[in-house]
Design brief:
Elements: H1 12-35, H2 42-47, H3 54-65, H4 68-81, H5 88-110, H6 120-134, H7 138-187, H8 190-199, H9 218-233, H10 237-243, H11 249-280, H12 298-306, H13 313-345, H14 353-379, H15 385-394, H16 396-408, H17 414-437, H18 442-445, H19 470-473, H20 477-481, H21 490-509
């Protein structure tokens, strides 16, 4: 397809579709505020009174896991680097088994734990990408998203969050499928898309190189991905709070496995969407041609290009991206309120259940407003936004190590746990920050070729983003090896260091008779 600097902008029908998504989400909050008007305790508000069943919780788990990153970034990843991210499916399977059999039994009995969340970035990042392509008002979208999310979280509690997630998941799937179906129709079927992807080297599944410096191989994606997703499903408050809201541990376990099916389906959709993206633009890359300024804008650009003659469908896709943000942010708001009320207020105050219930709603409102404020802060980060997201992600590894240490090592003490956590955090931050200053060479990332030969532009850009100057490749040994480690191994490093250091320090500072096996 030829490049076209004007791929259209939002029509009235698109704004209507987007507004309906927000209104339905808000309506769910109103409904549960009315339906649960007799709830007396903060537990009812924050955990749904543990009355939820497996199906809605499983769909909520899938929706909150699917942020706008899945909708915007996964297809762009396939477009640039190939479809081998489909092996995330292997890590999903391992993660659900580990979470179900190791972490679930522990957390179901203790209800909760604390964590640090970053939600403003989740709201702002997709808003920026979509604004620059669709022309949709940036801050109008950010504030409306934040306000609606805060409204239904405050009004309806966890039950509203879960059932809104179910609706938002359906919106995300509809948005994905609208792009896929239109692409298949335009390109003449599924077979031409697969053929284009194969000829363009995008079907790079069989890469079993064990080199840990390679950005994506079967091993980095399946093993490294397992540690990344385990830190999300195994110990993340927002996810844990969902499955412990089930009425029994068997329902909680079932919710995880039903959620696994949802994750695999979403993964396949995002990978095929990336193949569609490549098939449409195989002769004219919008990024290299300067029609978009970042890879995350490729999917919105495709939507405005191929769906511009179908009023309402671009709005559906944008609603899908924002649904990813809403489900992720609502999870975070609810989790933060839970930690504040149950861990900081209940143990140290003499508030009644009714007072704690009102305090839960107040905290939910407060954190919602803070999230909107954080989106404003994220807008000031500019070029280091991606670095900030990477650094926050690195924190999950040491935390996973901390909880793993506590569960599998009965002799671990507080000194070992704290030392292990700090050691893992320092090491993973070191490699993560270093990788931002000394990015891995292209030979390790292996971006695939893109061209602008078929563009119908008077001045096509000459962005040679795969090239480097000789001076850039002559880094010190540390940059060539340690900093070039695949980013998917950052979490693994943090986890292993936290556990190993934690065990050693616990043994050295505790009773050495634990070493003896009786």
């Amino acid at each position: 397809m030829s490049g076209d600097a004007g791929v259209g902008s939002f029509a009235a029908a698109d704004y209507v579709v987007f507004a309906v998504m927000l209104l339905v989400s808000a309506a769910v909050g109103v409904y549960y505020a009315w339906a649960d008007r007799g709830q007396r305790s903060s537990s009812d508000f924050l955990t749904g009174g543990r009355r939820l069943t497996a199906l809605p919780v499983s769909l909520s788990l899938t929706a909150s896991f699917m942020s706008a990153i899945t909708v915007l970034s996964n297809p762009a990843e396939v477009y640039r680097y190939g479809a081998n991210i489909v092996f995330y499916g292997v890590s999903y399977v391992i993660t659900m088994v580990v979470t179900s059999e190791v972490f679930l039994p522990v957390f179901y009995s203790i209800d909760r734990f604390s964590e640090i969340l970053y939600t403003g970035i989740v709201i702002y990042a997709p808003a920026l990408a979509l604004n620059q392509v669709t022309g949709m008002d940036l801050w109008g979208a950010v504030i409306s998203t934040g306000l609606v999310c805060t409204f239904y979280c405050t009004m309806g509690g966890l039950r509203a969050v879960v059932w809104t997630d179910v609706f938002q998941l359906s919106v995300m799937l509809a948005g994905f499928l609208s792009v896929i179906i239109r692409s298949v129709d335009q390109q003449g079927g599924v077979i031409p898309i697969i053929s284009d992807s194969e000829q363009g080297g995008r079907l790079n599944f069989w890469d079993f190189d064990p080199n840990p410096l390679r950005r994506h191989t079967f091993w980095t994606i399946s093993i490294g991905g397992t540690f990344v997703w385990s830190s999300i499903y195994g110990i993340n408050q927002a996810q844990v709070q969902r499955y412990i809201s089930c009425k029994s541990i068997s329902q909680a376990r079932l919710s995880l496995y039903i959620n696994l099916l949802g994750l695999l389906f979403i993964l396949l959709c995002s990978v095929f969407a990336g193949m569609c993206l490549y098939s449409v633009y195989k002769h004219c890359d919008p990024w290299t041609a300067g029609l978009v300024s970042a890879p995350d804008q490729l999917m919105p650009y495709l939507v405005m290009d191929i769906l511009r003659d179908y009023p309402g469908l671009p709005g559906l896709f944008v609603a899908a991206a924002y649904s990813g943000s809403l489900s992720t942010v609502s999870s975070s708001i609810n989790a933060l309120a839970t930690v504040t009320v149950e861990d900081l207020l209940r143990p140290y105050t003499s508030m009644s259940e009714k007072q704690l219930s009102w305090m839960s709603k107040g905290m939910t409102l407060l954190y919602g407003v803070l999230c909107i404020g954080m989106a404003g802060l994220a807008s000031l980060l500019g070029g280091i936004l991606q670095a900030a997201i990477s650094i926050f992600g690195i924190i999950g590894g040491p935390l996973l190590g901390l909880f793993t240490l506590g569960i599998i090592c009965p002799f671990a003490n507080s000194k070992g746990a704290l030392t292990g956590l700090l050691s893992g955090l320092v090491l993973s931050l070191w490699v993560g920050i270093g990788a931002q200053f000394y990015p891995p060479p292209p030979v390790m990332a292996r971006p695939l070729s893109l061209t602008t030969e078929g563009c119908n532009l008077s001045t096509a850009g000459n962005l040679t983003w795969t090239s480097t100057t000789p001076g850039q490749t002559q880094m010190v040994l540390l940059a060539d090896s340690w900093y070039s480690l695949s980013y998917l191994y950052f979490s693994l490093i943090g986890t292993i260091i936290a556990v190993v250091v934690g065990v050693l320090v616990s043994l050295l500072t505790g009773r050495l008779q634990w070493i003896c096996f009786k």
